[in-house]
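pasting input
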Amino acid sequence: MSKKFSTNPLRGLKDFYPSDLREVNWIKGILEDIAELYCYEEFEGPLLEPIELFAAKSSEELVNEQAFVVEKKKGKRWLLRPELTPTLARMIAKKSQEIKKPIRWYSTPTCYRYERPQKGRKREFLQFNADILGEGSLYAEIEIFNICIDILTSFGATSKQFQILYNNRRFIDALCELILLIPKEKMPDIYAVLDKSDKMEENEFEKYVIDTFQDEVVVQGILKLKETESLEDLLKKFDDIPNEFYESDGYNELIKLNKFIDEVGLSDYCTFSSSIVRGLAYYTGTVFEVYDTGKENKRAIFGGGRYDDLLSLFSDEQLSGIGFGMGVLMLSLFLKTYDLIPDFIREKDYTDTIYIASVNEEVANYAIELADIIRTEDLPCIVDYKFKNLKSQLSKAGELGVLISLIVGPKEMEQDEVVIRNMKTNEQKTITTKDLIKEIYKSFDELDELDPNE
Amino acid sequence: MSKKFSTNPLRGLKDFYPSDLREVNWIKGILEDIAELYCYEEFEGPLLEPIELFAAKSSEELVNEQAFVVEKKKGKRWLLRPELTPTLARMIAKKSQEIKKPIRWYSTPTCYRYERPQKGRKREFLQFNADILGEGSLYAEIEIFNICIDILTSFGATSKQFQILYNNRRFIDALCELILLIPKEKMPDIYAVLDKSDKMEENEFEKYVIDTFQDEVVVQGILKLKETESLEDLLKKFDDIPNEFYESDGYNELIKLNKFIDEVGLSDYCTFSSSIVRGLAYYTGTVFEVYDTGKENKRAIFGGGRYDDLLSLFSDEQLSGIGFGMGVLMLSLFLKTYDLIPDFIREKDYTDTIYIASVNEEVANYAIELADIIRTEDLPCIVDYKFKNLKSQLSKAGELGVLISLIVGPKEMEQDEVVIRNMKTNEQKTITTKDLIKEIYKSFDELDELDPNE
């Protein structure tokens, strides 16, 4: 006997058995329904892109450490996409002239990151993306926030369970430049430090900030950004704020977004948070993370932000966009925490399936013919190919949860008839094949009357 | 200015813009509907599998020439799956004890083959798969053929446009072994030669067979297998057929399948063809290819077959299965040949979308609130964020094909009202927000009456 292969998938990858996939598809279905209500159109890009595309705009970590690389030709390295946004930018840059603005697109790509598998993180993951491009005003922010809220509340989540924590990179830029006097070229480090802040203990974080910046003013400033609860409180902590700061785009965008959020009635769901900056390099304005606010699970479920320059990789066109990427697995863990995924969605529903059992093999063709008639009527149908032991065929139908079975034998075949059986009441009667469909619907009606809640 | 990246996808890969994806999703939807009518359950496996898994059972060509390989650790080579069946086998081997038989599963994975891109072949492709396992009888063959036929006829194709060409490897084995006296170990070469036969001119093929086998009896035998039209005609061409041949499993399976096909009424759609053997190594019994029979396009659209030993890679369990893999792109080319893909499915349908135009920005929040009310009713809604030039907002709605627009201005906002406009008749009236949903449905009813065919 030869050595057998493992039946496990590769580490960090997952098999989706039908019940697993039904759960994923149920979640995906709700995400897509919401996207369609906002008139977003679905698109899909290739799984492989040149590695340089991500090196240029996404993050060094993604490319250097977490990349799945394919190299078919010497020097041509392709990446299994770790995220979709660079592909989105490429596709839009290619056809920007012909696509009507604003562009509202969504997609649920499979993405890949080679990292240590852990709860909520696999090496292969579905990530729902929604983006609006070509709408520079903050109404785009409001639309995207509204989509996030509609998604989570559609599943039954409440503002007690999640919050959109938002910030603005231009605001952080202005604060760092004009109040803390940090030179512009240091900003990527500031973002990197802040992005790590929620993954560290307070002491650990303080040490990390001191090691990175050494400058006492900078360190104190960053610690303030990390701690602060409201914009007002934050600004109170700094002395000598120059007028330029209050005139900066960043400050004024943030103030305006705060105002919009209030006016549109989203303030229950949205909270300013000065420590949110996001890890990806391409964000330029609003950034946000949706947090599970439960005491035990406080963690980001997903996030996004505004990018002004992403098309610049491909063309000189300026097209600002804002969007988010939401891991379906992480979302499902959030939903499970609050018991928002009903169990029944993992089960295949056989209640509209017709099950055909046969007395013996002589009638096989007749059974198959009947199945054909039933499927033509758009009703699912199973033919049991055992062709013996009627009792065990019917008990199998019962186990599946089938409500209507048909029984055929030589006598029925000869007379163009069939026995129809109500699996709930175990009542059965002989009908003509001509009446089959009519009788099936009649049986469904009777079953409905038995249980009007079904 | 820095050098710009290309906006093209990598060679052999494809961008799916929304209209492209709508076409794919329309096709996929029909495939999945048929699978569900036969009570097949959807599953999905990981994109990456160990290269050895394909080396063992699929085909050398797939692994040696057409592989996209990822190597994260020295000596551990993972393949972007070129097909799904080995993953299916692995997943079933893992949980075989708990899954009820027969197993009916389908999936539409993205697969990868590094080959020269050509019409109907991309390096990245969607392939619909349907398999039934644990049903050893030929009724499984009939079910799979029925699914193939239902799929193609659902799109409107007829038996004049396609045929299922079927054969049986055990039959070819018996014929080669018992009539042509070819040793068993030569069979893979026989399959390889026959599988190439439809891609070659007759002369070219003859030369190729002579070069490969040299033995005159074998060469003549293979040429007969290539040419023949019916089982009867084929057998007439051989002298001295021993009794053992007529007693062989292969011969009897084929005879029985012929009989089933006749009895179940599929003979219009199915034709025996002794040259069909399929390229994949794991087939053991029935093999088939669905052909476009149009004079100009004579070519295989997709194919499949029965495999008895696929689980043996993972366990000692014997579980026979039969299934097929259908490239969605190749299918769509077939459908386009016969004009079976309606144009409208590429267009986004805005006929149930409500478009909100605003007189000025003062009413922005009110417009966004109304949109929220509408979406809660499961109606798609777009808010135009221009907030000026009402005429251009409405003409944009008209271009999209929107049938109902709402217009809001300061007066409407103040009085909790909104103007509802029928975009077909250009009639409009002021209604209260309280009546909004009722009035929207009323307008849809009026629009239906204008065009009862819609």
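fyi Chain B touches chain A through 87 residues (CB under 8 Å).
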